[in-house]
Design a protein that fits this description.
InterPro entries: GlcG_carb_metab_protein, PduO/GlcC-like, PduO/GlcC-like_sf. The protein is α+β, with helices and mostly antiparallel strands.
Length: 139
């Protein structure tokens, strides 16, 4: 049985994700933090603007981590953690707690999960749009 290798998320990819999300946010007049993780959850790129709310850096990291762990945009997971939802009892005893607020988006290549981007600092819908724009720039 042979498997085809899929190129991992590179530093150059991560820099493009950060630059694209930042540019989209600046065009909307929003200051954000952006985090990019590889498939193993390792930090590849991070940007926090001094004008951003201090916690936006941790928020962007946790959004990226959640999108990576669950292989889904965090915007799609909000209802899943409500009482009766699919992940209502999901334990949070992971390396870092999951964050179910829009703004985390997994990154795929050839159908395989290779990382995630998280954006924090704007309204959740804005952060989701900035993260989605970044991922689309890799396509």
């Amino acid at each position: 049985m042979s498997t085809t290798a899929v190129a991992p998320l590179t530093t150059e990819d991560a820099e493009l994700l950060v630059a694209t999300a930042r540019r989209a946010a600046e065009e909307a007049g929003v200051t954000v933090s952006v985090t990019v993780l590889d498939a193993g959850g390792h930090l590849l790129a991070f940007r926090r603007d001094d004008r951003a709310v201090l916690i936006s850096g941790e928020t962007s990291t946790r959004k990226a981590y959640t999108a990576l762990q669950l292989n889904a945009p965090t915007a799609d997971l909000v209802d899943a953690v409500q009482p009766g939802g699919l992940f209502h009892t999901l334990p949070t005893a992971l390396d870092r707690p999951l964050l179910f607020i829009a703004g985390g988006v997994p990154v795929h290549r050839e159908g395989r999960l290779i990382g995630a981007v998280g954006v924090g600092g704007g309204a959740p819908e804005q952060d989701h749009g900035f993260a989605t724009a970044a991922v689309q720039a890799l396509a």
